[in-house]
From TrEMBL:
This is Glutamine--tRNA ligase. Monomer. It is an enzyme of class 6 (ligase). Gene3D superfamilies: HUPs (3.40.50.620), Ribosomal Protein L25, Chain P (2.40.240.10). It comes from Thermosyntropha lipolytica DSM 11003. GO terms for cellular component: cytosol. A motif ('HIGH' region) lies at residues 32-42. It is found in: Cytoplasm. Residues 26-341 form the Glutamyl/glutaminyl-tRNA synthetase class Ib catalytic domain.
Length: 560
């Protein structure tokens, strides 16, 4: 029951409130590391963190977990803020940085040393790893483990003062080298790193490790429920150890103690999700940037045309489980279709135009016909589209020698033009050199439009079309999945995810023609192009040449 739409975190919070824990407060945080752009997995975490606070009348902080100076950058901070806001969440005045607490963290480290619970260790990183042991074999104690408090205090201060090179010493917690949990075998709390931090500059040359820093950040902010992904479950005893062994209460005004709760990471078929892999795709030029419409990043999904509502609906539907799984990307596509079906105005765009001349229609005449903006939502009204003697239809909608069940246009055949007339194909004009069909000569039934005597006359096919003199030239970008296989992360075949990149994930169509209403569109405007799917205006658009990204096709592979 936990799997589908269930939410065990909600149950835990409800129980905590019932027991009066944390003075009845619920306070969560979303703690991204500013070392890359957010992806749809982060959207799940954002929806849970902000969603739980909202649900229980609590608060949610946005906190940048900026304890790795060499990997982090202000560019990412700004991108992350923009993405969280775009998704529809608001941290109000609760924006924090882990680096705000560097002084406090140092103070608590001194406290641990004084209590005999931390020591400076001179082993190299490789030696520490070797001494740490394995799952089946206990670790060995460092020869520096029993340094005196005085020596540790002095060395730690000298570490802070920049007297030692990178990697020469670390501060470690003194816990238990025989613990069944390797994370508890004297974990490193501080490392030396002579690096400029994007916020604290050169003030520090020692930086706290995540497992030490995170519980302190949570405690100082009065966080009650520290929600994170499953890979941190084994780190929870260390999270609790830190809180048990420092006196943070004296620095916090509110009642309570943070509790770490883990939920499953989101994985999606046909994509990769780790920032490391996404960064590689960007840096090696497999995609055009973090916001490439094929990327599972929030900025990529936004550029592709996904709505925040669809992404939030998706996060709601996948629920919160304790077991990792891979979600079918068809569900995400289903969510955006459902949303846009109700919201996106319809438009007619011909991707591969074939000219049609209607020989019995008066030359020079333009007629404005009414058509609905969204048949699902009559309140979205109607618009006028031009019709004349020359129009374009989709080249694929005509076949000279069609199979039996072809209900589009063929020589001598009839179709209805959407919101206009029935036309009949009288003559096929070909390029004499190539034999290619370049134009159709048709006649129309003047009584067949809405309100006419033959308005209800039935013909099999209805085609979308665009009037020639008002047509707006545009570019259309059609996307396929970035990977050829559903599980690109799966390396059992010995291949890297790079080997599974789909070479045909982007098709650019130029020379497309749109109805005149699409002339002055703005980025992020979305439409349903009749028979082609949902499209979004790309920021590459110019007033002369709008560019449209296909968000998804019309056919739903999810709804059964
Ligand atoms: P990655 O492994 O992709 O680099 P990360 O966990 O290092 O991700 P952070 O910036 O530390 O990225 O993530 C911020 C928060 O988002 C964390 O609480 C993390 O648990 C959560 N998160 C990250 N990836 C996912 C995911 N795929 N599904 C759900 N939550 C996620
Ligand atoms: Mg992280
Ligand atoms: Mg990471």
């Amino acid at each position: 029951e936990e799997e589908k739409g269930g939410n065990f975190i909600e149950d835990i919070i409800r129980e905590d409130l019932k027991q009066g824990k944390n003075g009845g407060r619920v306070h969560t945080r979303f703690p991204p590391e500013p070392n890359g752009y957010l992806h749809i997995g982060h959207a799940k975490a954002i929806c849970i963190d902000f969603g739980m606070a909202e649900k229980f009348g609590g608060l949610c902080n946005l906190r940048f977990d900026d304890t790795n100076p060499t990997k982090e950058d202000e560019e990412y901070v700004e991108a992350i803020k923009r993405d969280v806001k775009w998704l529809g969440f608001d941290w109000e005045d609760r924006l924090y940085y882990a680096s705000d607490y560097f002084d406090k963290m140092y103070e608590y480290a001194v406290e641990l040393i004084k209590k005999g619970k931390a020591y400076v260790c001179d082993l190299s990183a490789e030696e520490i790893k070797e001494y740490r042991g394995t799952l089946t074999e206990p670790g060995r104690e460092s020869p520096y483990r029993n340094r005196s408090v005085e020596e540790n205090l002095e060395l730690f201060e000298r570490m802070k003062n920049g007297e030692f090179p990178d990697g020469s010493r670390v501060l470690r917690a003194k816990i238990d080298m025989a613990s069944g949990n390797i994370n508890m075998r004297d974990p490193v709390l501080y490392r030396i790193q002579h690096a400029t931090h994007h916020r604290t500059g050169d003030k520090w040359c020692i930086y706290p490790m995540y497992d030490y820093a995170h519980p302190i950040e949570d405690a100082l902010e009065g966080i009650t429920h520290s929600l994170c992904t499953l890979e941190f479950a084994d780190h929870r005893p260390l999270y609790d150890w830190v809180l048990d062994n420092i006196d943070y209460q004296k620095d916090v005004k509110v009642e309570g103690r943070p509790k770490q709760i883990e939920f499953a990471r989101l994985n999606l078929t046909y994509t990769v999700m780790s920032k490391r892999k996404l960064r590689l795709l960007v840096e090696e030029g497999y995609v055009k940037g973090w916001d490439d419409p094929r990327m599972p990043t929030i900025s990529g999904l936004r550029r592709r045309g996904y709505t925040p509502e669809a992404i939030r609906d998706f996060c709601e539907r996948i629920g919160v489980a304790r077991r990792d799984s891979v979600v079918d990307i068809g569900l995400l596509e289903h969510c955006v279709r459902e949303d846009l079906n109700k919201r996106a105005p319809r438009a007619m765009v011909v991707l591969n135009p074939l000219k049609v001349v209607i020989t019995n229609y008066p030359e020079g005449q333009i007629e404005w016909l009414e058509t609905e903006n969204n048949p699902e939502m009559p309140e979205m009204g109607t618009r006028k589209i031009p019709f004349s003697r020359e129009i374009y239809i989709e080249a694929e909608d005509f076949m000279e020698d069609p199979p039996k069940k072809f209900f589009r246009l063929k020589p001598g055949g009839e179709v209805r033009l959407k919101s206009a007339y029935i036309i009949k194909c009288e003559e096929v004009i070909k390029d004499p050199a190539t034999g290619e069909v370049v134009e159709l000569r048709c006649t129309y039934d003047p009584e067949s439009k809405s309100g006419g005597a033959n308005a209800s006359r039935k013909v099999k096919g209805t085609l979308h079309w665009v009037e020639a003199s008002h047509a707006v030239p545009c570019e259309v970008r059609l996307y396929d999945y970035l990977f050829k296989v559903p599980y690109p992360d799966d390396d059992e075949d010995g291949l890297s995810f790079i080997d599974k990149i789909n070479p045909d994930s982007l098709r650019i169509l130029t020379g497309c023609l749109a109805e005149p209403g699409l002339k002055n569109v703005k980025p992020e405007e979305r439409f349903q192009f009749l028979r082609h799917g949902y499209f979004c205006v790309d920021p590459d658009s110019t007033p002369e040449m709008p560019v449209f990204n296909r968000i998804v096709g019309l056919k739903d592979t999810w709804a059964k």
